[in-house]
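Methods — Computational structure assignment.
A single polypeptide chain was analysed. Its primary sequence is given first, followed by the predicted tertiary structure written as structure tokens.
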Amino acid sequence: MSNDPTTPVPVPDSPFRPEPGDRDLAPQFVLPLVVRIERAAPPPRTDALETAARAVLVMLADERSAGDGEWARAMRDWQDARIRKVVRRARGAEWRRAEALPGITVTGGTAEVRVFPPVPLDGWPKDLARLQVSGTDLDDPEPPAGADPTAPVLWMNPDLEMSAGKAMAQAGHGAQLAWWELSDGERTAWRDAGFPLSVRTADPARWPGLTTGGLPLVRDAGFTEIAPGSCTVVADHPALRRRQPQM
């Protein structure tokens, strides 16, 4: 097997595999996320990425997403197919209309992201469908502080250029893969702590080791911006890290 982190590695029935699989036969759904970007006060990029990742986790952990909850059927249908997430931007009246729709708003340092229950790929509510995907280019005014090694870290590929919207979706994918790998007790502890996490760009020298260390990783299906099979995120959760063989 190649150790090149840019080489596509087929994963049977993965929600992120570049090749068609069984998940493509199911009806396709998408998880909408809307980031608030006001002209005068856009959020820092890293804050937006972290808030989007937490928003995905909050949706997964919400009681309405499980059992007989009102969002449970849509969540099951979405997770049985490709795990698609699309980030759109809103400001002013657009944001107020988005907030009026069923969903959950998650706030970071200054970033606000609203996540909605999954919708059919071609069945977006009109107030979300009219929002723009482009225009989510955000910057960090200052380099982010170092990641807390005792908390989960979503490591981004240092060799890929992605818009903030694309990177927010990828961070959400990484958080979701970590959530799936955790035990019920570990999920509860993470939720009760408020889903602490960091999103950071990995050091290029460390990236190959991260992608081959057994931690959950996202390989993009290549629908937008980047080549199919590109590894975008490694989900480094302490509970998962402890399970890895010690060298």
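Note: Strands lie at 29-36, 84-90, 104-107, 112-115, 119-120, 153-156, 198-201, 217-219, 231-236.
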